[in-house]
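Here's what a typical entry looks like (Type II secretion system protein J):
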Amino acid sequence: MRNTGGFTIVEVLVAVAIFAIIVAILTSSLVGILGVNRQSQQGLAITSDVQRVAEAIKAAWTPEPVPKRLAISDRNAQLAASNSKALYRYSLSCVPDLALPAGAIVVITSLDKRGNAVAGTGTAAPALTKTCAALPTAAQVTAAAATAPAMKRVVVTGRTGNKMSTITLDLVRP
């Protein structure tokens, strides 16, 4: 008597082989997807770092807003101090408390009123490590105003592995 209710050994081996092939295909696809995800995460991280540096530079060289609720004399004094501090930092290419992430490079180029590069400019990241006076004196601001270019082009580049991100800012003198 034959038992007709089960599978033969050949049927089981064929089923296991088909299952193994399907698992191998899915595993290689999953590994590929995870690799693309890892590369995307690296690209996002370096882009975020570059954007953070660019925003810190922009914030340091832009006058701080002054509350409108102040009396006019207090508001004007605070506005003048804010403009002086921004102009001083801008002219010296100084950004206080800026920590450049690994692999980041900042190049600052002075531009004339038409946006053309001024000869002899293009300072790299060490220019940003200068310490700035918290509130510059009137003499410091006057000296800064005399030497500050009309515009500056700030190029922030970050690189990690084979991923690179660049942000370019053209900032007008405060």
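The first helix runs from residue 9 to 60.

More examples are in the samples folder.
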